[in-house]
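#struct-help
A.M.: can someone run this one for me? Single chain, 142 residues.
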Amino acid sequence: MAKEAFIVLIILIAIIAIRYHILPIITHTDVPMAVVEGKSMFPTLREGDIVFAYKPKPQDIKVGDIIIYEFSGRYIIHRVIKVIVKDGRYYYVTKGDNNPYKDTYYLPGVPYDKVKGKVLEINGVVIKIPYAGYYTLWIYGK
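D.P.: on it. Structure tokens below:
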């Protein structure tokens, strides 16, 4: 029994090290993984999905990409519908796939410095772990 507990402890330490120390270095973001909350990105993303993100250069975020950005201490996961370059600064107009209107948290759009990451996609398919984040939502009462 002690051997199994030790193995579980080692696995937990490895997961924590990967999540909090290794992934941020590799992905250039402090938000390499995020849990989808709400229905604004349905059907592409569902509540409880875990998505993976990385921080590209501002010019590498394009229309159609899904980004994670910060507003008032919360992370929002929405699709870029327009890219604006003004005075050499990048702004991204965003909208949830399931929302009727574009986001208006930031005008003219989300500034690059508020972007935490671009959601990882391969050949247009979002890389996600369906429903695995429900535990986190439950723990935090969301």
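A.M.: thanks! The mean pLDDT is 88.
D.P.: also worth noting: The radius of gyration is 17 Å.
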